[in-house]
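INTERNAL AUDIT FORM
Audit reference: QA-55
Scope: verify that the stored structure record matches its stored sequence.
Auditor: D.O.
Record contents follow.
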Amino acid sequence: MTDNPVLAEKSLKGIAVSPGIIIGKAHLVDRSRVKILYQYLINDDHINKEVERFREALDATEQQLTTLKDRMPEQVQEHAFILDSHLMILKDSMLNDSTVQRILKEKINAEWALKKSFEEIRNIFAQIDDEYISNRIGDVENVTERILRNLSGETQESLGAIKERVIIVAHDLSPADTTELNIARVMGFITDVGGPTSHTAIMSQALEIPAVVGLETVTDLVKDGDLLIIDGSTGDVIINPDDSAIIHYQEKQIEHEAYKSSIARTSHLPALTLDGHKISIKANMEFLEEVAAVRDLGGEGIGLYRTEFLYLRSKGLPGEEELFEDYREVAEIIFPGPVTIRSLDLGGDKFASALDIAPEMNPALGLRAIRFCLKEPEIFKSQLRAILRASAYGNVRLMFPMISGLQEVLDTKEIVGQVMGELEREKIEYDPNIKMGIMIEIPSAVTMADVLARHVDFFSIGTNDLIQYALGIDRINEHVAYMYQPFHPAILRMIQTVVNAARDAGIGVSLCGQMAGDPLCVPTLLGLGIDELSMNARAMPLIKMIIRALSMEEARADFENVIRLNTAKEVRAYLSKRMETLIPELEVKSYLDA
């Protein structure tokens, strides 16, 4: 290692969002937020002019986003929906009309009014327990920043103008930024902020360039021209590496390229264990446009279709027809594979409507998901009608979240029966034999699993929330996130209880959440007897490859050893050693090092 303090090697750990290893020079990009220098009141004579100034900024932003969408590289065309969502945010009444009303009523300048509207939206999103949905606030912020730049007249460097091979270093990158990337010049990127489910992460995966986000202070530590090593599989970033580190990562580069080639050749093979046991591999998704990626990556269907986006994108409620068209198209595209549509998993506080629901101190434990739907049956029935109508066009399954006990299942099925009766009277087609299941994500549902299994067609274990509720951990809180342990023996025992109850009742059991896509979890999940895994689409090829390298007999033996261990640390150590011995040639080693 060099003695020069300017070039001293530094190692950082961030969130790996797009795999691959690169070694190259840093190019710092200023993506700092627009500073509102002036917050002021305006005279009555100037109010209309201020509103017009805001609307002109909206028009300019719309034109910029439309142009970017039209020029999207071929590699990310299937993700054009991300910029479509930004255009919808731009026209959303919570951002658009709210800002105009603030200008008119509070008589404040457009920048100030827009900032206040954004903060109100941020507070709403902060209360959403689903990590994927709550992270959508980043998209709202991207749009807000672009409007502010158009209001202020500020410009920023175009990433499409970069002329040499570099690694982008920025506080944050918007999806619009990533559409400008010239992948012949940009090797990858690293940012201070961001998460694994952000749209920027999705875009980096589509472009197949390594990316690490959530590094917190990387823009303070890196200078233009610094040599960087980026490992997009583990989240490791090395600034000004020494010779031994460079050699080590050059070897890892070769291994990774070999892995990519092998995965491309086998992604459509079934997830069949060495002794012939078939595991169904499906994808989690939120947007209709993601279906193509599911097919391309070898998915056998949609194991979890989140339905919240259509509700979040505007002040009002989406109509039955809008919901039906979305669900029908997904069902038709993925057919004959199944699509499991999860009913609304939001609380009443997310609707800027006339709903008379008081603010809650802890929305994650309050009136949300199935509780909200049962309290607001008309909203629930509208969605159920759309899902049931879509079931006539494909292989649709219906799933209910946040079930805590039997009464909720009985009440829910009664409402479904009412909706079915309405459709029959109206002579509207639907699948009368549609499969109905529940998410097991609350400890009380685990305890009651044997009872619940007699009243539903399938279970889906939502491990993200189950771990959070069982261990009392907010996985988004950086102070306690380290305690979020999928290998905690209590979690493994809970999953075992649910699987046994499902098996005794003769119903299927799937598992979704981050555990499903974690290579280290695969032997344990197979040993537990999980029938189906549903995950981020990009994780499917690797998980299928690992399953093909295992036998059920070995997996069951592994689980018998794991279930006797007493701490998450012991479980992880056992599985790490097991995986290294079992399939040392795979990229799994990156996950073991993470």
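Auditor finding: record pair retrieved intact. Residues 1-5, 348-358, 585-594 have pLDDT under 50 and may be disordered.
Action required: none
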